[in-house]
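Consider the following input, taken from an annotated entry for Dynein heavy chain region D6 P-loop domain-containing protein (Haptolina ericina).
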Amino acid sequence: TLFQKVLLVKVLCPHRMPTALVQWSAAVLGGLLVERPAHDISDSFAYSAPDVPFFFLLSPGVDPTSDVLALGRAHSKTETNGKLCVVSMGQGQEPEAERSLNGMAAKGGWVVLQNIDVVPEW
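Applying the prediction step yields:
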């Protein structure tokens, strides 16, 4: 049964337990109880300011980059016009991130720092 599969996941792959429970809940209780409505990042953007950034705390497999890029286009912030920069954080990317932050702050652009969790000192 599906519940037995959940128990197997608990024993063999405990890190996948949240996903297994969502699937089990959807099957037993119905999808409407476990589905979350999509978040419109323009709602969050309304609360941001040049000195008030916003962060995404994500579940595995979630990537809001395309939504951020679309919001940027709506506000004339694109990589093409030099008003948006995407930096994927990782080994040795701190100087690039700092350059991007300073450069975009000077010209009113945006910086998207991906995977910032891999650089704990940030």
